[in-house]
Specification:
Elements (H helix, E strand, L loop, with lengths): L11 E3 L13 E2 L5 E2 L2 E3 L9 E9 L8 E8 L5 E5 L1
Antiparallel strand pairs: 1-4, 2-3, 5-6, 6-7
């Protein structure tokens, strides 16, 4: 959330699974039962920008054999929505 204490927080937080069936380890293990994201990004936005991802899909949208990350984003009020392809 953008506020005066944190005018540019990370917008995207990804927690990668360690791949071990039966373990519930996502992200970077802090060794105390908590985890940090594997990846986070502020998406190079200026401070105090309202930019809120609300959905995320991984799909080969262009059928090139590579998966893309597709984000639905609300910026400002509800009337301004866009999509981002990574």
């Amino acid at each position: 959330m953008v506020d005066s204490d944190n005018p540019n927080p990370p917008r995207i937080l990804l927690f990668e699974w360690n791949g071990i069936v039966g373990e519930n380890n996502y992200g970077r293990d802090n060794g105390d039962g908590t985890f940090n994201p594997t990846y986070q990004s502020k998406m190079e936005l200026p401070d105090d920008t309202q930019w809120n991802p609300y959905s995320m899909v991984v799909e080969d949208i262009d059928k090139d054999g590579k998966y893309e990350l597709i984000l639905g984003i609300r910026s400002g009020d509800r009337g301004r929505e866009s999509f981002l392809l990574l």
